[in-house]
Design goal:
Elements lengths: L6 E7 L5 H13 L4 E3 L3 H11 L11 E8 L5 E8 L10 H17 L2 E6 L9 H15 L2 E5 L7 H11 L4 E3 L8 H12 L5
Parallel strand pairs: 1-4, 1-5, 5-6, 6-7
Antiparallel strand pairs: 2-3, 3-4
Helix pairs in contact: 1-2, 1-6
This protein binds guanosine-5'-diphosphate and magnesium ion.
Length: 200
């Protein structure tokens, strides 16, 4: 194991940016990579997609962790956990649930060894919430390797959001679509390189 520890990659961002669908897409991409073993099977991924994508507000805010191993050699697998967070909910519907979701998300952020920060073009420059995103990206990237992901690149406004994200922070920014899989294989590879420092 590199450094003998488990790598915890927290997937953080506002609700409805597609974090859960992105986690499913990344796990699928990882499972197709040689030397990577994902401890969630295709049927379970289907279930996660069916049960957990969309409608976040109806569920109790908890984190879900998915494990994978990168085998650079037989004897020293790198162990990674992808931590799907409930996210920062808005607009505040049920306040209690929102605060709980935020608390759970912040705890995952604090415990993470690396961060995938997810934005989506349903948010847009000028949107007040982007100030919070920017603060959180700055906070995360000052302490641990961080990648900014602009999800939903199949929707209009993604290119503008990528330009905004590149202007306001120094971490790498990647545009992907968890829905169409565009950019997902490359993101999975980059995640192993930059967040785990484990190339396969
Ligand atoms: N068009 C499009 N929709 C997406 C994409 N990723 C997720 N979604 C949709 O966005 C909504 C929220 O997704 P979800 O994964 O639950 O977001 P989360 O709250 O951040 O976990 C769902 O309706 C998804 O189908 C994408 O890449 N493109
Ligand atoms: Mg979710």
């Amino acid at each position: 194991m590199v450094g003998g520890r488990i790598h915890r990659i927290a997937v953080v961002g506002r609700s409805e940016t597609g974090k859960t669908l992105l986690v499913v897409a990344l796990l699928k991409a990882l499972s197709r990579m040689r030397g990577v073993r994902v401890l969630v099977n295709v049927e379970e991924l289907r279930q996660i997609r069916y049960l957990k994508v969309g409608g976040a507000r109806e569920r109790p805010p908890v984190v879900e962790e998915y494990r994978f191993q990168v085998h650079k050699s037989r004897t020293d697998p790198v162990v990674g956990h992808i931590v799907d967070t409930p996210g920062l909910q808005e607009p505040p519907g049920r306040r209690r649930e929102c605060f709980r979701a935020a608390a759970v998300t912040f705890r995952a952020l604090l415990e993470a060894t690396a961060v995938l920060y997810v934005l989506a073009p349903t948010l847009h420059p000028g949107d007040q919430g982007l100030n919070l995103d920017q603060e959180l990206i700055r906070y995360a990237s000052g302490r641990r390797p961080t990648l900014v992901v602009v999800n939903k690149c199949d929707l209009p406004g993604a290119a503008e959001l990528v330009r905004w994200a590149r202007r306001v922070n120094r971490t790498p920014v990647r545009a992907v679509s968890a829905l169409t899989s565009e950019g997902i294989a490359e993101l999975a590879q980059l995640m192993l390189q930059r967040l785990l420092r484990a190339e396969v």
